Amino acid sequence: MDIEGMLERLGAVIGPPPEGGVVPVPWELAPEAIGFQLPADYRAFADRYGKVSISDELHICTPSEAPNPKAGQPPGFEGFLYNTTEPYGYCAWLAECYRDGNYDECPYPLFPVEGGLLNWGSNFNSDHFFWLMRGHDPDR
Q: Which pTM was predicted?
């Protein structure tokens, strides 16, 4: 996969990265902090754009140490996982649906359950986007 080429093509559509760059993410700490590494293309995107909202429509979460505007949400890897594991809100509702056997609403458990869903973004319509955490290769 040509990640740099992909980011160049994406940049032609969504525009350049923020002036002055982004707060770097210490990716090498991910396996210890959250138990796994995130996909290489996602890491490259986050290194270039950071936590970003594209056209105020697609909101992509990153484990940034930059202060979070949402009160009570921690920064860094803990904050990144918060989007999936917080006890209230959409992901909590999905986890409850799965526990109750409502697989039409949620056919998979949520992280940190093995093989669970991990939230990486959302959009203006309150749709949420997830990785299915299966296997040890984050790029699969």
A: 0.86
- Confidence label for 139 from pLDDT (cuts 50, 70 and 90): confident
d(CA 103, CA 79): 27
**Full 3-state SS string of the chain:** CCHHHHHHHHHHHHCCCCCCCCCCCCHHHHHHHHCCCCCHHHHHHHHHHCCEEECCCEEECCCCCCCCCCCCCCCHHHHHHHHHHCCCCHHHHHHHHHHCCCCCCCCCCECCCCCCEEEEEEECCCCEEEEECCCCCCCC
Task: Name the residue with tokens 């056919």.
Answer: 107
Of 10-14, 71-75, 108-112, give the lowest mean pLDDT range.
71-75
Place 67 in a pLDDT band, splitting at 50, 70 and 90: low
